[in-house]
Design goal:
This protein has 127 residues and is an alpha+beta fold. The chain is 19% helix and 51% strand. The chain has a single domain, classed as Transcriptional Co-activator pc4, Chain A (Roll), CATH 2.30.31. The chain is globular and about 35 Å long.
Length: 127
Amino acid sequence: MDIEIKSPIIITLDVIELDEHIPSLKFNLAIQVDKYNYSLSVSSHVWLECQCFDEFVDKLLNDDIAHLKDMNGCFELNVNPILGWFEWSCAKEDLHGYITVSKGRERLTDDAKSAMYAAFNDYPKWW
């Protein structure tokens, strides 16, 4: 796993492609939620601009509200340390305009925030 968040839900991002023209990374995204007698599994591909990635990591470091959004607007990860939660959403639209959406909000503990920062900050940057 290139980037892995293990708690309170599992989110993994594995790089599958790089674009140097518009500095960006294509990730295989996986989200796994297992709680409250409920299970959800999401798998998708997302493109993240390197600049957006860097801004997200900087905001996490400074305890600011951090937003990570893919280039197509289909995936978002929002971290709000002020309110003590993080939100995620993932959407996929078919050729006819029908949309499937998965989303959630989780409690953001200090441990979870530190682990999230480490997971993104430790990713080896080429840009």
